[in-house]
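[stage:ingest] chain + small molecule (nicotinamide-adenine-dinucleotide)
[stage:ingest] validated
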Amino acid sequence: MRLQGKTALVTAAGQGIGHASALALAAEGAQVWATDVNETLLARFAGVANVTAAKLDVLDKAAIDAFAKTLPALDILFNCAGVVHNGAALQASDDDLDFAFRLNVRAQLWTIQAVLPGMLAAGRGSIINMASVCSSIKGLPNRCVYGTTKAAVLGLTKSVAADYVGQGIRCNAVCPGTVDTPSLAERINANADPLEARKAFIARQPMGRLAQAEEIAPLVVFLASDESQFVTGQAYAADGGITI
Ligand code: NAD
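[stage:predict] done
[stage:export] tokens:
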């Protein structure tokens, strides 16, 4: 077991990549606190070994701080929560930009601020932030607000990596291509022609298919584990070739 004896906090673990990653971390022996704002989704963790499910809204700073105080010192933080807004620059509203920065960026900083003191006291920790290839790595159509905030995630990741590299803390980002998750299905179904929309998402993936969440989780396990102990400040893509 690659994560035996380690403790992990995962945000947005109710579905999609967060869910698959929480299961993968637990399967490797980590004690996982799987959190989400949606308590109904968390029922899926009932009976899963090594997983404690708990409601946590990462837009609520006080809730994050209070929750972190109930946890033992963490070895792993996977910041997975995020939102995707549709539209180019001319469609980007102030409200969307504000909300996306709050959920995609500020919430990650808040969870980091809540768990970092414990990691520093222990002299070790791996922080993994969910970014995307749609960020400073690549521009994608109709993802202005999203790509802007995910680029900021890479900035946050490198900042944390740089500041704490001498104190046993590593911080890396995961950058998926298009992953077949419930929210992607919603984005597809919001189109006038969902079948065509799905085809278009698939067409932009050189491998000719979408990823499954279980294909992103191994990257999270790697970055969480000591196998990546020389790795920090990096943006790891698992993208089906979209950035070739
Ligand atoms: P998803 O979008 O289907 O599910 C998101 C989860 O986040 C839900 O369980 C939801 O309840 C939870 N959530 C929403 N607001 C929250 C809050 N305030 N506090 C706590 N939890 C909250 O899952 P997904 O598509 O796997 O996306 C997860 C992350 O991966 C996001 O950051 C997303 O930007 C990123 N990502 C997704 C893709 C993709 O194609 N699906 C690609 C690259 C990056």
